Amino acid sequence: MKKLMNKLSKCFINGIMIITPIFITYLVIATVWAMLDGLIGRYIPIKFPGMGIIIVLIIILTVGGLSSNWLSKRFLTLGESIISKIPVVKFIYGSVKRLSDTIFKSGNMFDNAVLVPYPHPGVRCLGFVMTPVSKCMAKYLGNEEYVSVFIPWSLNMTSGFNVFVPKRDVTYIDIQGEDALQYIITAGAVMPGGMDNKYHSAGIK
What we know:
The chain is built from 7 helices and 5 strands; from the N terminus they run H-H-H-H-E-E-H-E-E-E-H-H. By secondary structure, it is of the alpha+beta class. The protein folds into 3 domains: about 1-65; about 70-105, no CATH class; about 115-195, no CATH class. A 5-stranded antiparallel beta sheet has the order 4-3-2-1-5. Helix 1 (about 1-40) packs across helix 2.
């Protein structure tokens, strides 16, 4: 009876580990799909499955194509200058634009994983090297060279904090950015170095 329960327990854990990521992936895609279909469907009389996704893709490609035209660039510049004069709106738009430019124009934003002594010496925290420290900020940090490091919160990559760390205290680690992100998002349950560690920690052969 005990052997049977152990076998069922292992089967249950295996099933959970396989089904959970599939279910969450499906849930996210289905939610976005339904949200776009519902939002676009309010304004377009013709409806069919996936209409929202297709229309959004067409809009993105159209705007991207027009952005290379000099006349469109003039209108975009004019629009941004108007937005920059509107309180609150200019802060939201400017922050989102800078973030999107950083992510999409430098695709390796989370590739440079490092260990830094935070929150106190003797402890190592996983973070990511951000843009180089500007001259404006460097003059307030002294003569030593510093590195800007983003330290995300576990389970929540949308939050975190930035610290300036002396370059001599930064340890660059040779792991994939994806592995580092998985480690943070799972609160350390998935260690960098492959899937074997995860299965081993769960007792799965």
